[in-house]
Amino acid sequence: MANGALEIVGMCVSLIGLIGVAASTGMPMWRVTAFIGENIIVMETRYEGLWMNCFRQANIRMQCKVYDSLLALSPDLQAARGLMCCSVALTGLGLLISIAGMKCTACIQGNDRAKRMVLIIAGCMILAGCFCCLIPVSWTGHAIIQDFYNPLLIDAQRRELGEALYIGWVSSAFLFAGGCIFTCCSGPLDKGPDPRYMYNRNAPFVAYQPQPVQSFIQPSRQQSFIQPSRHPSARSAVAYL
C-alpha cells in the first residue's frame, strides 16, 4: 500500500517537472538585456529564447520574431534547443511507461517482477530527462554570469538571468525527485524461491523406509567371540562338552 502511494506521488512530481520543462523550453526569457539611456524615457528590454527573440519598450506591447537561422543563436542556446527537446521527450515517454508499472493499473497483472522492471526503466528515463534539462540551463547561466563580470563588455552587451532558467532549475529538481521515487519504490528485485527447496506436487510419494541398525561391535571383536580360545584348559572343556 505504501509503494502504491509513493508511485502516485512520483507520478504527480514528475508531471509537474514535465510541465515546467515544457514551459521553460517555449519561453523566450532565457537571456534578458535591459538598456536604459541617459533619458529615463528611453528604456528597452530584450529577451532571447530558444526559438525567438522579443523586444519590449516602455508602454509598448512585446514584439517577438522567430530566428531566421540556427546560426543566429549562441553555442549554448543551440545545444539547449536540442537538449531541452530531448528532456521533454524522455520525461513524457517515462511517464507513459510508468503507468504500465504502477500497482493501481491493470497492466501486467500477476507479474510483480515485470512491474518493478518497468518502474525502474521509467525512473531512469525521467532521470535522464532531468539531466538533459539541467545541463543547458546551467551552461547558459554560467555563460551569462561570466559575461556579466567581463570588464571588456559594455553595458548594452551584458545580459541577466531570465525567468526560464529559474523554471528550468526547479523543474530539474522535480524530475530528479520523481525519477528517484520510481527507481527506489520498486524495491529490490527478488530472484524467486530457491529450486532446491521448492515442493513438487507432481512428484511420486515415496514411503519412508528405515535403514537397518548396524552393530557397533567391530568385526575383529565379533570374531574374537566366535573363535575358540587356544588355551589347553579351554580345549579340554570344549572336548568334554
Description of the structure:
The protein has 241 residues and is an alpha+beta fold. Helix content is 53%, strand content 10%. The protein has helices at residues 2-26, 75-101, 112-148, 163-184, 219-226, 232-240; strands at residues 31-36, 43-48, 52-57, 63-66, 160-161. It has a five-stranded antiparallel β-sheet with strand order 4-3-2-1-5. Strand 1 and strand 2 form a beta hairpin. Helix 1 (2-26) packs antiparallel against helix 2 and helix 1 packs antiparallel against helix 4. The longest helix has 37 residues, at 112-148. The protein is elongated, with a radius of gyration of 40 Å. The termini are far apart. It is found in: Cell junction, Tight junction; Cell membrane. It comes from Cyprinus carpio carpio. It holds the Pfam family PMP22_Claudin.
Number of helices: 6
Question: From the alpha-carbon coordinates, what is the Rg to the nearest angstrom?
Answer: 40 Å
Strand content: 5-15%
Q: Structural class per helix/strand content?
A: alpha+beta
Rounded mean pLDDT score: 76
Major sheet: arrangement of strands: 4-3-2-1-5
Low-confidence stretches: 237-241
Helix content: 40-55%
Taking the sheet with the most strands, its summary is:
5 strands, antiparallel
Tally of DSSP β-strands? 5
State the end-to-end distance: 90 Å
Following the backbone from N to C, one meets helices and strands in this order, namely HEEEEHHEHHH
Shape: elongated
